[in-house]
Amino acid sequence: MKLISYKSHLAHFKNKNAIKQICKEFNFFYEESNDLTTLPEDMDILWSAGEYVDPSHIPSHAKLLFGPGLNLAEPTVKKLTSVSEINKVYINVLCSSVYNQVYTKFLNTNVKLLLTPLPIDCNRFQPDPTHPKEFEILVYFKYRDPMLKLQVIEYLDTNSISYKLLEYGTYSEDTYISLLKKARMCIWIGCAESQGFALQECLSMNVPILVLDVKSVLEQCFQDGTLMYKEEHFEVTPISTTTPHWDDRCGVKIYELWELPDALEKIRENFTSYQPRQFVLETLSTRICWERIKTAMDLQQEPSKKQGICPSGVNQQPQHTVESPSVQSDQDEDCRDVHRQQETQFQ
């Protein structure tokens, strides 16, 4: 199997790492390119996370895979809907249930939507049973009404419950892992997510989560509390969630603050019954995620014999390879990614 990553610098680095992780595990050929005129004829997949590519640029036998991160701006939707059957190329879009609700209103049958997550690094994010728990709750806050955060903290302070507060965009991955090793559980005050890597990484560390969930993207706020989206941005407001990939092994979900005491008590009383890491291993491993994508894209069962994988899982071919800028914090990059999308989505 030969996969070409087009303009990978536009991809959230967690998504890019996930694609590379798949290629490494299955010994697929991986290459990065910014030039559509020099694509290899024997390529199998062209992956473009954030930019539309006309199917005429790739060999007729190859597959196009877009997203996650292909924004909902009108020009992009129009290009996707204009794809004719003459191209004989199925365009696959990795997207969330929110994007699916919008895309399906416009796209023709030549475009398949893949409602599947990308894998997380279960080896890096794994629990350490020998590490003592030093506090009760890690409070994670991302793009919600700041008043909600203050109310949760006030409740914990009033009831003398030990906690640490972690705000999106302010920490490194190493710090995050260190805090997850020390926390017994997590309270997640998050926004609408397409995947939510950080939440899934928390689950992978076997830390159960109490989620203060959302019902729509209209609950998403900037740091000063102003809304990111308004009703006029959508013909029909998409139903949303903080936890698109979840089951009862992961913890408890609530929607109203008054539900917090009972939900907190429920997790405490049934703490040993939660198995969030098992959920992750069964649904978000590299192999399982690739099987979903492979089936949806109707790809060959076995990879091609043309490999050339270097130890890092990336082929070193300078004529096509473009290195993305290094990122020390996944949250910082994710912040930039969100704001890039917002700048272009609703012009």
Radius of gyration: 21 Å
* pLDDT averaged over residues: 80
Q: What is the CATH topology classification name of the largest domain? A: Rossmann fold
**Beta-sheet strand percentage?**
15-25%
Classified by CATH, the class of the largest domain is Alpha Beta
Query: Looking at this structure, what is the CATH superfamily of the largest domain?
Result: Glycogen Phosphorylase B
In percent, how helical is the residue content? 25-40%
User: What is the straight-line distance between the termini?
Assistant: 38 Å
Stretches with pLDDT under 50, minimum 5 residues = 85-89, 303-347
Biggest sheet strand line-up: 2-1-3-4-5-6
Report the principal-axis shape: globular
Q: Please, how many helices?
A: 10
Find the count of extended strands (DSSP E, 2+ residues).
11
From the coordinates shown, what is the CATH architecture of the largest domain? 3-Layer(aba) Sandwich
The number of distinct structural domains comes to 2
Structural class: alpha/beta
SSE succession: EHEEEHEHEEHEHEHEEHHHH
Most strands sheet: 6 strands, parallel
